[in-house]
């Protein structure tokens, strides 16, 4: 699929993985809409690149509908990338004091990291469905999971469950949308050097770098963005979850 001149929306486009994707798709000629809650970063990207920033809550139907409408108004929407983040709870299923893991925190994590992805996926698909197809179909939807979906670490049950749900939705969504010519692909990153960790790059690299088989470093956001661009270009990638992790497999903790 040639994305030049088409519209692309990046939900979470002001974050680490999202910003790199915005830059990559913009450089490839797409008319990019940045959908995020980080107003300062979103508007900075808008000023720098000439992209469109739309304040968007991935868990809100009205908010995402409005963002999709903005994207479709610019040009036919062919690309939807979801790399949004948010609060995530954690802890052992039963803590040291014998208390069970907090139910409210679990629900919040599922809402942000699974229901939010579903919300973006369904509304992007509905928007694309109303557009004329090209030789490559109507478009592609790229979601973001995590290798925690496969090897969640101790204390990661809520996050692993949410990301596991994203993995499980992928092939079903691809089958659902195949009559419409819409592809669905998920990227499952390993440890990527982004501000989401809340620690310095040196600290993170010192901890995670030696654990990655090869290359012995954390992933860089432009590597995620490069994979997004390839997914867009390669029409035969569909219904697949792609691990992007340097062969890292999470240890228990």
From TrEMBL:
GO MF annotation: an example: oxidoreductase activity
Keyword Oxidoreductase: yes
InterPro entries the record matches: NAD(P)-bd_dom_sf (IPR036291), Sc_DH/Rdtase_CS (IPR020904), SDR_fam (IPR002347)
Pfam families in alphabetical order: adh_short
PROSITE patterns listed in its UniProt record: ADH_SHORT
Cited SUPFAM superfamilies: NAD(P)-binding Rossmann-fold domains
Keywords noted in UniProt: Oxidoreductase
UniProt KW Oxidoreductase keyword: yes
PANTHER family per UniProt: 17-BETA-HYDROXYSTEROID DEHYDROGENASE 14-RELATED, SHORT-CHAIN DEHYDROGENASE/REDUCTASE
Family: Belongs to the short-chain dehydrogenases/reductases (SDR) family.
UniProt protein name: NAD(P)-dependent dehydrogenase (Short-subunit alcohol dehydrogenase family)
Organism of derivation: Actinophytocola oryzae
């Amino acid at each position: 699929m040639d994305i030049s001149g088409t519209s692309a929306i990046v939900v979470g486009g002001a974050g680490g993985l999202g910003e790199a994707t915005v830059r990559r798709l913009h450089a490839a000629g797409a008319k990019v809409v940045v959908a995020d809650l980080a107003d300062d970063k979103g508007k900075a990207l808008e000023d720098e690149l000439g992209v469109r920033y739309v304040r968007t809550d991935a868990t809100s139907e009205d908010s995402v509908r409005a963002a999709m409408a903005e994207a479709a108004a610019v040009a036919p929407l062919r690309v939807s990338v979801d790399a949004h983040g948010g609060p995530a709870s954690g802890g052992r299923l039963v803590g040291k004091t014998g208390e069970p893991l907090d139910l409210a925190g679990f629900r919040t994590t599922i809402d942000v990291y699974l229901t939010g992805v579903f919300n973006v996926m369904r509304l992007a698909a509905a928007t694309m469905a109303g557009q004329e197809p090209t030789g490559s179909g109507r478009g592609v939807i790229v979601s973001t999971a995590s290798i925690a979906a496969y090897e969640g670490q101790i204390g990661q049950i809520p996050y692993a469950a949410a990301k596991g749900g994203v993995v499980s939705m992928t092939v079903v969504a691809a089958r659902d949308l195949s009559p419409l010519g819409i592809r669905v692909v998920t990227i499952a990153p390993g440890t990527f050097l982004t501000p989401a960790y809340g620690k310095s790059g040196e600290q993170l690299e010192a901890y995670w770098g030696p654990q990655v088989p090869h290359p012995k470093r954390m992933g860089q956001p432009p590597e995620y963005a490069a994979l997004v661009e390839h997914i867009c270009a390669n029409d035969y990638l569909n219904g697949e979850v792609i691990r992007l992790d340097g062969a890292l497999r999470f240890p228990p903790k």
